[in-house]
Amino acid sequence: MKLFKSLLVAPATLGLLAPMTATANELNLQDVSGYSSSEEVQNISEFSPELAVTNSRVDGLEARMNDYEAGSFSTTTSASFSADFVVGAVDGAAAEAVTFDYQYGMNLSTSFTGEDSLALTIETGNGGNTASSSALDMNGMSDAMTLDGITYTFPLGDKTTIMVGDSTDVSALYSTACVYGAFTDLLSNCGSGTAAGLGGGSDFTASPNSSSSATIAAAYDFGNGFTFAGGLSGSGGDSDGLFTKESKDVFGVQAAYSTDSYGVSVSYASTDTTSTTESTFWGLNGYYTFDGSGLPSISVGYESEDPESTATEEGYFVGLSWAEVGPGSVNIGMSSNENYTSTQTETFTYEASYTYPINDGMTITPGAFIKEMDGSDDQTGVIVKTSFSF
């Protein structure tokens, strides 16, 4: 923006200075220097018209530059930036070599009333093609900047918040009862990845970049720790429209209660899949923080999935978090790799990580995980993640 402004101001400045130079050339400097001190007061008046013209031009230039500065950027607009570097290897994966991946994101937000927010997220990265980046679900955008979501959030009264947008999650306003600091993407779901982490309608279609996609959600705060939230999202082709029989729609609600030491949430979701069948999900999450130093907080999660054409499936999660271990924090957890029927063989992922800050804007997290594989060797990953925020 500063460079763009300079390019605008520079021609205007040169245009104003050119007449000033001509005026200066018209003055006979030798004559000026020849005046004696006794004649200075009398003769300097001869140059008053030229000096007045010069001063007025300088004042005009300053006023124009002030106009450029005043209108250059909204005072209600803020921006934040983040980047992650990941170095790691996964034994048992198709490619076991040590790899390096990155992701970068920009979050821009503008308020028009002081209480609302128009926000958008722009992201890029080169992940997704390696076992390490896949385990952490890093951005696989082939180094291309992509608009990952745009939303408008505003209050309705004192207790209700409304959100509308594109490429955003129905669960964006949820208050899921989980305090676990996950390392891998799987455990970040806290055991209820769909019920309590419901995405947008485009997440359940074969064409996630559909030209017709929208999400609307709302949250109500009862006070005293009680909240209720829900929303719906639709995605369809140009001819299918939104929230029709042909479109792929999702719907979800959540009730939650939380305090400083414990919390619980119950979530429900209904989704359309790419085969036009429906599935319903129930999720239960809770956490408890023990009093006393050295004791961890515990987070648990459970999800029940009821597909339209198959048997009910279930999944589990448990995680322990120590908030203060030396300069950082420790997280240890396990989760079923997906939801399973009673006749299927369950497999799990186990992880451990240690997160410590280098300074206010830089954090390093070394971690390891073991992913059980049904019918093949387990995968063991060792990864170091460096995060920057500014």
**Residue fraction in strands:** over 45%
CATH architectural designation of the largest domain:
Beta Barrel
Whole-number total of structural domains: 2
Q: Could you report the average pLDDT, rounded to the nearest whole number? A: 83
Name the helix and strand elements from N-terminus to C-terminus, one letter apiece. HHHHEEEHEEEEEEEEEEEEE
The first-level CATH class of the largest domain is given as Mainly Beta
CATH topology of the largest domain: Porin
Largest sheet: 16 strands, antiparallel, barrel
> How many H/I helical runs?
5
CATH superfamily of the largest domain: Porin
Radius of gyration: 30 Å
Task: Give the neighbour order of strands across the main sheet.
Answer: 1-2-3-4-5-6-7-8-9-10-11-12-13-14-15-16
Topology at a glance:
Elements: H1 2-26, H2 29-34, H3 37-44, H4 48-70, E1 77-91, E2 99-110, E3 117-125, H5 131-135, E4 146-156, E5 160-166, E6 212-223, E7 226-236, E8 248-258, E9 262-272, E10 278-289, E11 297-307, E12 313-325, E13 328-336, E14 348-359, E15 362-371, E16 379-389
Antiparallel strand pairs: 1-2, 1-16, 2-3, 3-4, 4-5, 5-6, 6-7, 7-8, 8-9, 9-10, 10-11, 11-12, 12-13, 13-14, 14-15, 15-16
Helix pairs in contact: 1-4
Please provide a written account of the structure.
Helix content is 17%, strand content 45%. The chain contains five helices and 16 strands. It has helices at residues 2-26, 29-34, 37-44, 48-70, 131-135; strands spanning 77-91, 99-110, 117-125, 146-156, 160-166, 212-223, 226-236, 248-258, 262-272, 278-289, 297-307, 313-325, 328-336, 348-359, 362-371, 379-389. A 16-stranded antiparallel barrel has the order 1-2-3-4-5-6-7-8-9-10-11-12-13-14-15-16. Helix 1 packs antiparallel against helix 4. The longest helix has 25 residues, at 2-26. The chain is globular and about 55 Å long.
